[in-house]
Write the structure tokens for this entry.
Amino acid sequence: FYLLPEHAEIFGSTLVFEPKFSNLGYWRSVDDRAEWELEVAKPGNYDVWLEYALPPNAGGEFIVETADARLRGRSESTGSW
């Protein structure tokens, strides 16, 4: 499954879709979140990969959540956008 930014439902005070770069940007508020709806035909274990970029001194907690599972992690600076 590829959960692309342009297919996300966006919520929050500052989060936006940036068409020029096809990304979700301005994750600055605790109420910012993106949601995707998908149907999984076969239950099982799946690897989760996130692609992101953060400037120096940035980072924060993220949560990937499904109907019956929750994965928490921390994003760290990648050095630049």
